[in-house]
Amino acid sequence: PDDHHLYVSLGCAAANLMLAAAATGRTGEASLTADGNGIRYDYLMGEAKADPLANAIPKRQSTRAEYDGRATPAADLVELERAAAIPGVSLALVTDQGRMKQVRDLVLAGNEDQMNDPAFMHELKQWIRFNPRSAMARGDGLFSAASGSPVLPSGLGRIALDRLFSAAQENEKYARQIDSSAGVAIFFAERPDHDHWVRVGQACQRFALAATSLGLKLAFINQPVEVARLRADLAGIVGETRRPDIVMRFGYGPALPFSPRRPVASVVL
Questions:
Q1: Nearest to 43 by CA among 11, 61, 20
Q2: Is residue 35 included in any domain, yes or no?
Q3: Within a domain: residue 131?
Q4: Average pLDDT, whole number, for the chain?
Q5: CA–CA distance, 171 with 113 (Å, rounded to integer)
Q6: Cα dist. 263→138, 169, 267, 268 in Å?
Q7: Number of structural domains, the chain?
Q8: pTM to 2 decimals?
Q9: What is the share, in percent, of the chain residues with pLDDT greater than 70?
Q10: CB within 8 A of 257, min separation 6: which ones?
Q11: For the domain that residue 33 is a member of, what is the CATH number?
């Protein structure tokens, strides 16, 4: 309701833009627009600056699947933290099984709350694209195959979702996915405002690109952020008192089909 995820998403886009621009000789800085509701990028033409994070942009995706349970090397965890180091944002990495199970339990509680909310379920159904034709025609939404779900005609997909999609089944799936992960990343902003939410997005995207370059897969598990009553419990797992902003699990897993994206010209002015 406060457009939190919108501003985080703007930060993710800004991180991509800054990296790609620098890699093509357009180094600059991103900042909020004067009204605080958008992102502006000011740059100068100069020497191209290669960056492995920029190379990972077309490869990065949310992989909503089970991973193989392998631990991430300590050196790679350090690299993830380094990539996500943005002023005004802190990152907590959870890799021990005890705390990961605590995060898992909050994800399941949040998922149950959301799936019992008719408004949430209505919105979710509006965003699922059950087949490539629907996904490409709309240019947005969640392509079902990108989550490992079968491709179906749109009408049949909606019927299947109504009859087969349950909180219990989804919780079982989330439990398996989190238990198979190497760790969980939780991002916190210093202050709950547009500027810091954008910064969280930048940190989140840089983390995701670094993970991709290291051969890691990742996926969002934001239920304990989106369900307000669970935020304090999630923060408490890592000794925080601030509102948590984004939660991601990471590990080694399979490649899934990519979701379609709108053309750049339709989203950049």
A1: 20
A2: yes
A3: no
A4: 93
A5: 11
A6: 12, 35, 7, 9
A7: 1
A8: 0.92
A9: 99
A10: 143, 145, 146
A11: 3.40.109.10
β-bridge mates for residue 232, sequence order: none
Rounded Cα distance, 204 and 37, in Å: 19
144 occurs within a structural domain: no
DSSP string, the chain: ---HHHHHHHHHHHHHHHHHHHHTT--EEEEE-TTSSSEEEEE--------HHHHTTTT--B--S----PPPPHHHHHHHHHHT--TTEEEEEE-SHHHHHHHHHHHHHHHHHHHT-HHHHHHHHHHEE-SHHHHHHH--SEEGGGGTPPP--HHHHHHHHHHH--HHHHHHHHHHHHHTSSEEEEEEESSSSHHHHHHHHHHHHHHHHHHHHTT-EEEE--HHHHSGGGHHHHHHHTT--SPEEEEEEEE-----PPPP---GGGT--
Q: What does the pLDDT average to over 61-84?
A: 97
Query: CB-based contacts of 117: which residues, under 8 Å, 6+ apart?
Result: none
Q: What is the dihedral of CA 47, 52, 55, 59, to 10 degrees?
A: -160
pLDDT at 265: 82
Residue 85 or 144, more confident: 85
The verdict on residue 107 lying in a domain is no
Measured between alpha carbons, how far is 90 from 242 in angstroms, rounded to an integer? Answer: 10
**Residue 95 is encoded by which pair of tokens?**
């890799």
Q: Which domain holds residue 49?
A: 4-100+180-266
At 127, the amino acid letter reads W
The pair of three-digit structure tokens given for residue 246, joined into one six-digit string? 């984004």
